[in-house]
Design a protein that fits this description.
The complex is a heterodimer of chains A (about 325) and B (about 325). With about 325 residues, chain A is α/β, with parallel strands linked by helices. Chain A contains 11 helices and 12 strands. Chain A is globular. The chains are: A alpha/beta (about 325), B alpha/beta (about 325). At the A-B interface, helix 7, helix 8, helix 9 and helix 10 of A face helix 6, helix 7, helix 8, helix 9 and helix 10 of B. The structure holds adenosine-5'-triphosphate, adenosine-5'-diphosphate, iron/sulfur cluster (2 copies) and magnesium ion (2 copies). The site of one magnesium ion has 4 residues of chain A, from helix 1.
Chain lengths: ~325, ~325
């Protein structure tokens, strides 16, 4: 097993990142002190329920949303301190794929132009070169460039739109891609196609990925390590197989239990008592998971659990981790 | 065996489109007894929603419906509009994928619940209010009294779906149709909503149809499963028989495509290649033939019809069924 924690200089390193939104006179604590690292060539999965701050974190990595505090280092450079042209140049190396493939494509533009757009923004002036690159990535994602380049997004299914989004993200040959729930809006059959495609593209273009999803089984299929997030904070980070075999955080265990198992002999576990996450406007004191946690005690409401190492590559933020 | 509560007989739905006639549901037969759960599974666009709308008589105006839908002794297709309206919401209830389809954004949750209850049951306002609070509590809404005064946008997606379920259950329906009730929700909330539906169903001896694209959702929760493809039911069986001895290559492929928790990371998923056929251009042979690993020349020439398997209640439509003989590995 790879010991990812001891690898040298990570490609991406996030240090105590805080991102907030103003809402009237209130503050939404979307990301509250997240630290993580992604090694070159690695896929880090990021899971958590709706609203826990996954997309906010992803966008803050790319500086599409500026953090309130904390640092994002990419290949040794501090993105949080960068502006203007330097940031624009950096952004070619990091790309984003969205959850809703259809909504993220301009309905009035042709596929060829949509995929070529990042090249134009990056200043590739030679039209023949642009066409060559667009053809290259469209073929790579399994679409026939001659058939699709001239057509409009509404002529394509959700799965095909996601292929187009992936092509657009690849056209500048980035090193790092944040995939924000790329398969959540897709049917199981198409979901498998897109997951396989992402794996192929990763190998072919030597990519590093942050793969965001709310479904642990989906995340496991593609990730080397997995980070579990709850209400703006990380609960647990561990190599995929270890996380699934021995979850240490009670929230990880809850997420694992919730996955529907396609086997009629496996009775679904009773889930009723768990409720929904509290509001990130007024997160609980101490451990943010304590209002739903079966192991919570007084210490959990008084003291914020720090993310600490409990095994090879395994980190957990809990006062009473599972054995 | 008691007489079924619902019998769908040779139901077909056609929709006129600019590309030509679209056969959304292609001669489907199904039945369901009181107190039982039927799962309907299939990819997006295979006709699940159109079939459920045919049962509810809520098809688009231009749709052409043929066949019979016998519910509790009457044919819904031929029922007068006002009798239908009375039936829907009382004996026949529905929960949609997007809860906002059944919730009114400008009315409070209390008003919506109480209106439904008072429209169908003879209760006065205080009694309807009391019942609304009980229902919200039953579907797991904390502080239900305070929720009554709130609007749908003040609730999370999971809460909204619970409220839509409370409204659907409010008049003790005999049949509840849940069309992808959890597809828009997180896995944790999905599990809670599915548990809630199962619990209420058991308690009320209600019949239920759960529609989904994910075989995992129906595995532990349906008594029987019908797999649809391109408008047709292509396999139908008691749930455990379907999972253990599926005969349709399509069912096998749908199950294989689900990422498994016990799989090693980076194992390529057995995806189904391509897409379902264009429903305005029906194929001459088996609709699954272009994507099927077992297809032969015959599959492209003729349509397989639903055939009984060795086990009672198990039907499949395939020329080259899989896992037929005893002892073939499952
Ligand atoms: N522009 C905004 N203004 C105010 N609050 C916001 C804004 N964007 C997001 N939020 C809030 O910040 C929190 C984190 O949101 P975020 O979109 O990052 O969650 P997520 O984990 O990606 O959820 P999902 O699974 O639904 O995509 C949520 O409570 C959300 O409502
Ligand atoms: N209002 C409509 N007008 C025309 N075609 C429709 C309409 N609604 C659905 N369809 C088509 O009918 C077929 C079945 O759709 P639907 O029942 O919604 O599928 P599912 O619920 O299985 O995803 C699809 O080809 C779909 O595009
Ligand atoms: S710190 Fe306490 S409340 Fe938080 S997860 Fe651990 S046991 Fe539960
Ligand atoms: S009839 Fe032929 S094409 Fe259709 S599912 Fe069976 S083997 Fe495949
Ligand atoms: Mg998001
Ligand atoms: Mg549907």
């Amino acid at each position: 097993m790879m010991q990812l924690a001891v690898r040298p200089a990570p490609l991406l390193s996030v240090d105590d990142l805080v991102v907030e939104y103003g809402l009237g006179n209130k503050t939404v604590h979307a990301v509250s002190g997240v630290s993580l690292q992604v090694a070159r060539g690695e896929t880090l999965g990021l899971v958590g329920e709706s609203g826990c701050g996954k997309s906010t974190l992803g966008r803050a990595l790319l500086q599409l949303r500026r953090a309130k505090s904390g640092r994002v280092m990419f290949d040794g450079q501090d993105l949080t301190a960068m502006e203007g042209e330097a940031l624009r140049r950096m952004r070619r190396r990091v790309q984003l794929i969205f959850q809703d493939p259809i909504a993220s494509l301009n309905p009035r533009r042709r596929i060829g132009d949509i995929v070529a757009e990042p090249l134009i923004i990056a200043g590739v002036k030679d039209a023949a070169e642009r066409k060559r690159r667009v053809h290259e990535v469209l073929s790579a994602v399994g679409l026939d460039p001659d058939l699709v380049a001239g057509r409009l997004p509404h002529e394509f299914s959700g799965g095909q739109c996601q292929r187009i989004c992936i092509a657009r993200a690849l056209v500048l040959h980035p090193e790092f891609i944040v995939c924000d729930e790329p398969v959540s809006a897709l049917d199981v059959s198409i979901r498998a196609q897109i997951l396989n495609l992402l794996e192929e593209m990763k190998a072919r273009f030597g990519l590093t990925l942050l793969f965001i999803a709310h479904d642990l089984a989906v995340v496991k299929a593609v990730s080397d390590r997995v980070a579990v997030m709850y209400l703006g904070r990380l609960c647990e980070v561990a190599p995929s197989e270890q996380l699934f075999a021995r979850p240490a955080h009670p929230y990880t265990a809850l997420l694992l239990q919730a996955i529907p198992v396609p086997d009629p002999d496996v009775r679904p576990a009773e889930s009723v008592a768990t409720g929904e996450p509290p509001s990130p406007i007024a997160p609980p004191s101490g451990c943010r998971f304590r209002t739903r946690c079966p192991r919570a005690d007084q210490r959990c409401s008084a003291e914020i659990p720090a993310l600490r190492q409990i095994g090879p590559g395994q980190f957990v933020a809990c006062h009473h981790p599972l054995a | 065996m008691s007489a079924p509560l619902l019998t769908i007989e040779d139901v077909a739905v056609e929709l006129p489109t600019p590309r030509g006639n679209l056969r959304a549901v292609d001669h489907v037969d199904l039945s369901l007894e009181a107190g039982r759960t039927l799962g309907i599974v299939g990819e997006s666009g295979c006709g699940k929603t159109m079939l459920s709308r045919a049962v509810l008589q809520l098809l688009p105006k231009k749709a052409k419906l043929t066949g019979r839908v016998m519910f509790d002794g009457q044919d819904l297709v031929r029922l007068a509009p006002d009798s239908l309206r009375r039936l829907r919401g009382r004996d026949l209830a529905v929960v949609f994928q997007d809860p906002m389809t059944s919730l009114n954004p400008v009315l409070t949750i209390g008003t919506q619940l109480m209106e439904t209850i008072q429209e169908h049951l003879e209760l006065d306002a205080p009694a309807a209010r009391k019942r609304s609070i009980e229902l919200l509590a039953a579907v797991g809404i904390p502080a239900p009294e305070q929720r009554l005064a709130q609007y749908p946008h003040q609730c999370s997606g999971g809460m909204r779906q619970r409220i839509a379920i409370a409204i659907a259950l409010s008049c003790e329906p005999k049949l509840l149709i849940a069309d992808e009730p959890t597809t828009a929700l997180d896995v944790t909330i999905q599990a809670q909503i599915l548990d809630l539906l199962a619990r209420e169903q058991g308690r009320r001896h209600m019949a239920m149809i759960i529609i989904t694209h994910d075989l995992g959702v129906v595995a532990g929760r349906a008594d029987e499963v019908a797999v649809m493809y391109a408008g047709r039911v292509v396999e139908r069986a008691p749930t455990s028989a379907l999972f253990k001895r599926m005969h349709m290559p399509y069912t096998e492929a749908l199950l294989a495509a689900i990422p498994k928790l016990d799989a090693v990371p980076h194992t390529p998923l057995p995806a189904i290649s391509g897409r379902p056929p264009d429903p305005t251009r029906p194929l001459k042979g088996c609709s699954f033939a272009p994507r099927c690993n077992y297809a032969s020349g015959r599959c492209h020439e003729a349509k397989p019809v639903l055939t009984s398997a060795e086990m009672p209640g198990h039907l499949y439509a395939c020329f080259h069924p899989i896992r037929m003989a005893e002892g073939i590995e499952a």
